[in-house]
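Note to self: keep these together.
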Amino acid sequence: MAYWLCRFLFFKRSKSFSLILAVTFCFFIECLQLIQTPFFIYIRSHSLLRLLFGQGFLWSDLLAYMFGASIAYLCDKACFTARSYKEHE
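Structure:
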């Protein structure tokens, strides 16, 4: 989902830019979960903000972010490159 949001916001940039930006954003949010200041504890007490900032750090989440963004990138590259190629014939 983060990859597709980056593609939507930065549609004139390359697909690899969107991939790197999406993974960096997800890693940043995941690393924010290591911070336990009163401000972040307060934010995480609200259900909607807890969905955005998460509750706890997991190494497996970092792998899932990389895997998901890579799959979205490969789908984007395969589908839209093939369609663009057919339009130019």
